[in-house]
Design brief:
Distance between the termini of chain B: 90 Å
Helix content of chain B: 55-70%
Strand content of chain A: under 5%
Distance between the termini of chain A: 49 Å
Number of strands of chain B: 0
Order of helices and strands of chain A: HHHHHHHHH
Shape of chain B: elongated
Structural class of chain B: mainly alpha
CATH architecture of the largest domain in chain A: Orthogonal Bundle
Oligomer: heterodimer
Helix content of chain A: 55-70%
Radius of gyration of chain A: 20 Å
Largest sheet of chain B: none
CATH topology of the largest domain in chain A: Arc Repressor Mutant, subunit A
Strand content of chain B: under 5%
Number of domains of chain B: 1
Number of helices of chain B: 9
CATH class of the largest domain in chain A: Mainly Alpha
Number of domains of chain A: 2
CATH superfamily of the largest domain in chain A: Winged helix-like DNA-binding domain superfamily/Winged helix DNA-binding domain
Number of helices of chain A: 9
Largest interface: A-B, 62 and 63 residues
């Protein structure tokens, strides 16, 4: 609801207390550097403060602030992408080969890595411990692969935009996402769904 | 009679195995499917609002499988039902022959069928991840001093 002076319900006084931890965690999971994460939270909050008149009240305050932070991070990745060769294609390549190493049927699931049955998978999404495991698994992904995965799957940024921002080809993006999914799947299977095979470590 | 049926069953499985794509190809195809714009409801709206999230999950190609897998009491799909829903198979932009091969593969390959359901769960989990702050301990939160620094900076900015 707009207030009499036209501004919508925003409480800059309480932003840090109410959304600071969420924004920091958001930035930290994408940057993996607490100092830079704090800098980006500050930048996003300052940018939000300067543009309160542009807040239309269509989304909640947290979503609006997160959107600003997301764009700040994308800008940062765009600049960094121009300077570095942004790929992590070697990640999980060997594991992927092993996963589909089957003596009887080439390129079929290896018995020791084939997906097991995930019991009560839907109910897991409501449990706090599941999210801790999920976070632990995603933090095991290489930084750049995790960044691509979070942008695509969590932030719903289009593939085209990610390729432009990170200066990578659509094919490289797809390979990174594919392997990220394989690795996450395997990590969750071992550490949450409790399906372990002989010779497996902590994943 | 039984040995004959058994023999026919194994012949059928071997024929299908020879015709169908490999598990690696199916896994790659499934990842590509998740990248396909039709599956993402890109036109619904950008950003991570609840509306677009809900639309995205609804538009997810394997959402019906996900719902079946999600509920503890949900019945396991019957073997005959373990094929791609017609709509999602069509939006894969596969030729009818490739679609048939894929369906045949999923009919005989439980591991790939499970993999596709697990991709749905990953997809669903990733969608929810953006809305929650997991309890990960102090290192994943802003320190008290950092909060004070931020508040001071914001006060300063507001004061002009």
């Amino acid at each position: 609801m707009p207030s009499p002076n036209g501004a919508h319900d925003l409480n800059p006084e309480r932003w840090v207390d109410e959304h600071g931890d969420f924004l920091f965690h958001y930035a930290l999971s994408r940057l993996r550097d607490p100092v830079r994460a704090e800098d980006f939270v500050q930048e996003a909050l300052l940018a939000a403060l300067r543009s309160t008149d542009r807040y239309l009240g269509r989304s909640c305050e947290r979503s609006w602030l997160t959107g600003i932070l997301k764009h700040k991070l994308l800008d940062h990745f765009r600049k960094a992408g121009r300077e570095t060769n942004f790929t992590d294609l070697e990640f999980y390549g060997e594991e992927e080969n092993k996963t589909f190493e089957n003596q009887a049927f080439p390129d079929h699931w290896n018995d020791s890595c084939a997906p097991g049955e995930w019991e009560a998978a839907g109910a897991a999404l409501d449990r706090e411990e599941f999210w801790r495991v999920f976070h632990r698994c995603s933090s095991k992904l290489p930084e750049r692969v995790a960044r691509v995965f979070l942008l695509r799957e969590v932030d719903d940024v289009s593939s085209e935009e990610i390729c432009n921002a990170l200066n990578i080809s659509p094919n490289n993006l797809w390979v990174m996402l594919h392997r990220a999914r394989l690795a996450l799947r395997r990590c969750l299977e071992m550490n949450w769904f409790g399906i372990r095979r002989e010779g497996e470590g902590d994943g | 009679m039984r040995p004959l049926l058994n023999w026919l069953k194994w012949r059928w499985i071997l024929v299908l195995a020879a015709l169908t794509p490999s598990c690696r190809q199916v896994a790659r195809l499934a990842s590509r499917r998740h990248e396909h714009p039709l599956s993402r409801n890109d036109s619904v709206g950008k950003g991570s609002t609840r509306a677009s999230r809900a639309a995205r999950v609804e538009g997810s190609p394997f959402s019906s499988r996900l719902r079946a897998a999600a509920g503890a009491r949900a019945p396991r799909p019957t073997r005959g039902a373990r094929v791609l829903p017609r709509k999602s198979a069509a939006s894969l932009q596969l030729s009818p022959w490739d679609r048939l091969r894929l369906r045949a593969h999923l009919t005989i390959c439980d591991a790939c069928e499970r993999y596709l359901r697990q991709l749905d769960i990953l997809y669903e989990a990733a969608g929810k991840l953006g809305e929650r702050l997991p309890d990960l301990g102090a290192e994943a939160r802003l320190a008290a001093e950092a909060k004070e620094r931020l508040k001071a900076r914001l006060r300063c900015e507001r004061a002009g």
